[in-house]
Amino acid sequence: MAAKQGLPTLTLRVLEEALGMGLTAARDTAEAVAAEGAYYLEQVTVTEASEDDYEYEEIPDDNFSIPEGEEDLVKAIQMVQEQATDTQILEQKTVLPSKHPVPEVIEDFLCNFLIKMGMTRTLDCFQSEWYELIQKGLTELRDLGNVPDVYTQNMLLENENKNLKKDLKHYKQAADKAREDLLKTQKERDFHRMHHKRIVQEKNKLINDLKGLKLHYASYEPTIRVLHEKHHTLLKQKMLTSLERDRAVGQISGLQATLKNMEIGHNYHASEIRVVPNREKENALEGPTQKGLREAREKNKSSTKIKDNTKDSEFPTDMQPNPNLYLYKENICPAKVDYKLNNIFRLHELPVSCIIMHPCKDILISCGEDRLWKVVGLPKGNVLLTGFGHTDWLSDCCFHPSGNKLATSSGDTTVKLWDLSKGNCILTFEGHNHAVWSCTWHSCGDFVASSSLDTTSKIWDVNSERCRCTLYGHVDSVNSIEFFPGSNTLLTGSADKTLSVWDARTGNCEQSLYGHMHSVNDATFTPRGHMIASCDACGVIKLWDFRKLLPIVSIDVGPSPGNEVNFDSSGRVLAQASGNGVIHLLDLKSGQIHKLMGHESEAHTVVFSHDGEYLFSGGSDGTVRTWS
What we know:
One of its GO terms (biological process) is axoneme assembly. Residues 279-320 are annotated as: Disordered. Keywords: Coiled coil, Repeat, WD repeat. This is Sperm-associated antigen 16 protein isoform X1. The structure is a single chain. By secondary structure, the protein is of the alpha+beta class. It has nine helices and 28 strands. The protein has helices at 9-19, 24-35, 73-92, 106-117, 120-136, 149-263, 268-285, 288-306, 323-330, and strands at 341-346, 352-357, 363-368, 372-377, 383-388, 394-399, 405-410, 414-419, 424-430, 436-441, 447-452, 457-461, 466-471, 478-483, 489-494, 498-503, 508-514, 520-525, 531-536, 540-545, 550-556, 562-567, 573-578, 582-587, 593-597, 603-608, 615-619, 623-627. The strands form seven sheets. The chain has a four-stranded antiparallel β-sheet with strand order 1-28-27-26, with no helix packed on it. The protein has a four-stranded antiparallel β-sheet with strand order 2-3-4-5, with no helix packed on it. The protein has a four-stranded antiparallel β-sheet with strand order 6-7-8-9, with no helix packed on it. Helix 6 crosses helix 8. The radius of gyration is 62 Å and the shape is elongated.
């Protein structure tokens, strides 16, 4: 019977997997070598059949029938033995033992070790020499044995240790980064905490200061109220004293005239003998009142000698027609708002405070904070005349209706009148206690009105050269003043956030307009006179119905302050000069707002040409810009 003995295929399979390369050829060679001489023949003697009457056991031929032509004794014996072995196993009911893990053989261990260490050349030498020994039969695999489990465990533990070291290194790096982030966060927290504490301290300090200022201000309020009352009382007393003085001066004048008539019928010597002792006696017995009357009489004499023919002007009683009404009917072309910067005139060294157009000619006048006013020819911008005489900055100017005179207001508390044909000052009005912000001519040309920081407005008589009336009513600076076209009505805008309408003949406030939340910087009438436009320190423009004295619309173009507003000749476009250098154009028909960007700094004033084709603006850089 043949039996097969050789290298187990399981060992070769494990070796092939460990090496990771084609070891199939080596395994086939080992099997072939082991197969040579693995089978051997066993001699069996078969006796001849006896002729005795021995009864042979009958074998059933159900499962062990041999086909005809294939009878082989050796195969038959082998099949019988296998059947007997199987029967025995089934009778004993043997349970096969469980398979235990087989440790690596030495060759597999060495191959795995060389592969892990990356020693490929050593691995190739080992494999070639090892399998050459196997092929020659000099080495038997069966006698080599296995690698002890402790080495395998050491390798596993070593691998696990390496992995743990890598994880530890990674965790250390993460911990270091987290520590740095924590320190950085703690520093930022400490900084913000310290900053917060400082802010809280400053806030508490400001709150305490604010409380102290409120208490301080509250303590001053009664004093201020009492001083205001005393001020008004003194003004009333001053007015009454002035009236009494004027009455006394009139009586003295009458007595002097009577005395002169009485002296006509006497001779010179007699009068001298009678009058001189009386005057000496009178001078010896006169008190303070008589002395004051005598000084007033002498002053009145000197003034009457200088101004024998002067007298107060009369306000016109009839309403004069407004020429702009017919101009508006004729001007039916669409309003122009698409202006572009055309030219820049550098006229002043300090900011330009006011620009006005001549009523008849193509010239404009600019006033600046350098105490000068200049007459500028258009369109070239050449300076035709320069006027100087004020001792402080100029705030406003206004043409006489005829265009041959100019009125200017200044921070030196005066209003001056100028003759444009000669360029010299012909009259100076003094009476305001603080800077004068604005001035305006009456349409008749006999009166000039001015507004001041001293909360009052004054009406000056050009012919009698004196103040005819002082307007009281505003409680803060009066920033603008303007006569209604062709009438005796005045419009003022004040820092007390109100507009007031006055009767110039009586000096009474007819109406006050409320609505602005901030100081009113400028106010003006439309050319037709039916509407008022005003702007305040927060850039809010308001339009008012002058006939009803009610607000129409409020437009916020802030937060930059509006310094001045002016209408074009048609009254359909309103221009505002803003503190941020932008000129805002409001189309009253469509309600659209257009912006002109060109000033590098604050824009103080703006005015249209008579035909509306040009727009002129003055800024704090001392320049006048032309837009067309």
